[in-house]
Amino acid sequence: MLTIRFSRVGRKNRAQFRVVLQQHTAAPTGRHVAVLGSYDPHQKVAVLKADKIKEWIAKGAQVSDSAYNLFVKEGVIEGKKRAVKMVKAVVPVVEEEVKAEEVAAPAVEEKKAE
After folding, report:
1. 17: helix, coil or strand?
2. HEC-encoded secondary structure of 60-77
3. Residues 6 or more apart from 81 whose CB is under 8 A from it?
4. Which residue in 87, 88, 48, 86 sits closest to 68, CA to CA?
5. Could you give all domains of the chain from N- to C-terminal order, each with its CATH number?
6. What single string gives the DSSP state of each residue in 22-88?
């Protein structure tokens, strides 16, 4: 399956992205079928080949959430933006504190019984 997504280029701390068409199993920086545009997030400048993007979507290419939101923002396609959420890491420290309190509590009760 072909997908339209970002491929990061540019130097450290100065990201730029190519909008590429590639197999969904390929690495984002790997082989691509076509370059459909570019995006500079620092200057908020997008250069897109709208006709090619519409053509590939019509042929059945899937669009990543971030690329889809950019296309909607730039007016290439119509629709609502998709929610792009990052998963937060769960902190297991709270469980350890509870276990420490449970261990300390029985020792206090034994002293009272004597």
Report:
1. strand
2. CCEECHHHHHHHHHHCCC
3. 68, 69, 72, 73
4. 48
5. 2-74 (3.30.1320.10)
6. EETTS-TTS--SEEEEEEETTTTEEEE-HHHHHHHHHTT-EE-HHHHHHHHHHTSS-SPPPP--PPP
Return d(Cα 49, Cα 37) in angstroms, integer.
Answer: 6
Q: What is the pLDDT of residues 49-101, one digit of tens each?
A: 999 999 999 999 999 999 999 999 999 999 999 888 877 877 666 555 555 56
pLDDT of residue 114: 56
Q: Look-up: residue for tokens 């690329």?
A: 67
* pLDDT tens digits, one per residue of 6-58: 999 999 999 999 999 999 998 888 888 999 999 999 999 999 999 999 999 99
The whole-number pLDDT of residue 103 equals 60
d(C-alpha 47, C-alpha 44), whole Å: 10
Q: Residue 95 has which token pair?
A: 């469980």
